Amino acid sequence: KTPLPGIGEGTNVHIPIVGGPSTGKSNYIVMATRELIGAYAPPRGYTITFSNPRHETEYQDKLRLLNSGQVLTKTTDMRPQAYNLKIKARHAHVPKLAYVYDPAGEVFGSIAHTEEQKYYEYIDGILFVVDPFAIPAYRAKHRAQVDLLRTSIRPSDMDVEEAFSRLLEALESLKKQIGLKAGVANGQPLAVVISKADALDLEAEIGSARARELMAKDSAIATEEDAISMLTRQFLVSNELGGFVRDAEAQFGDVKYFSCSALGHMPENSGAQFTPIRVVDPLVWLMGRARALKVRNERVRLVDARQRAVARKMAGLRGRGYYYWRSLKAPAPER
Fold it and tell me: What is the value of pTM for the model shown?
């Protein structure tokens, strides 16, 4: 297994969910797992199952709560056990084993607790969850609404940059332990995920409809996921987290930004069923980077469909010339 700085080539894939308390990590991972198993895998020929029966029982118990409109209680385990998922592609002889970790958010309030997360020695990617209501500038803009809806929104009380700093400190400490040079960029991909996008109409700002508007204005944007990444990154910069964005992109080999909602609407007492929004996208992106899922061909098809759609809007030879010129080039880089 490749150590910390690089992405692994083996059959095991390790992905921690990182973020402060009340960022929505526990709700996220259950709903993302549900979408991965039930919606993403079947049409693509994957079979995804739990390799540990106890983990499956725990997952089903949590899923039943969410399906009945009840949110999960916060994780308290400082040294979490991973969800173990066995991913079997059609015609593959050997499955991939994905380990997804959900430590308590309080882990990132103390470097001592962060350094106890020994699975950092072999992680293949990190999913960093950002509660928009833990961003001081954004919270200040919407203070009256946040105060009114505090029990539903449940904003995290840990600063985004503090949680990220604890993560970097733990990775630097680990480099020293395994004899690597400190200060060298980490090789793993980082998915930065803004959660709770359903609240305060944030979806309209960094969600699918706004992404499609951006794509209509800029034909160079290859996919809706790329457009959301651009919007989410700009949202962070506009809300005074430009330093966090620069640090993330300097410290990690590959960074992409996502927005999602694990619940689809703010929790209420009505028992209304939760419908997640885009929760599987960051997990699939990271698993694709770790080669647990084959996502490159699907992206190539999406880019090709986008180029054809743009070409059809152009007249005659100009449209055909645009498409054939684009098709000869390498697939559009992700944003």
Answer: 0.86
Take residue 50 and report the two structure tokens written for it.
Answer: 């739990």
Per residue, the 3-state secondary structure of the chain, as one string, reads CCCCCCCCCCCEEEEEEECCCCCCHHHHHHHHHHHHHHHHCHHHCEEEEECCHHHHHHHHHHHHHHHCCCCCCCCCCCCCCCEEEEEEECCCCCCEEEEEECCCHHHHHCHHHHHCCHHHHHCCCEEEEECHHHCHHHHHHCHHHHHHCHHHHCCCCCCHHHHHHHHHHHHHHHHHHCCCCCCCCEEEEEEEEECCCCHHHCHHHHCHHHHHHHHHHCCCCCCHHHHHHHHHHHHHHHCCCHHHHHHHHHHEEEEEEEECECCCCCCCCCCCCCCCECCHHHHHHHHHHCCCCCCHHHHHHHHHHHHHHHHHCCCHHHHHHHHHHHHHCCCCCCC
The amino acid present at 320, given as its one-letter code, is R
The predicted-structure confidence for 5-63, as pLDDT tens digits, reads as follows: 333 444 789 999 998 888 989 899 999 999 999 999 999 999 999 988 998 999 999 99
pLDDT digits (tens, 9 = 90+) for 128-165: 999 999 999 999 999 999 888 888 888 888 889 988 98
Q: Are 134 and 20 in contact (CB under 8 A)?
A: yes
Q: Are strands 83-89 and 96-101 parallel, antiparallel or unpaired?
A: antiparallel
Task: Please say whether the beta carbons of 85 and 101 come within 8 A.
Answer: no
Residue 3's pLDDT band (cuts 50, 70, 90): very low
DSSP strand pairing (96-101 vs 12-18): parallel
Distance CA 121, CA 2 (A): 9
Give the torsion through C-alpha atoms of 304, 305, 306, 312, to 10 deg. Answer: 110
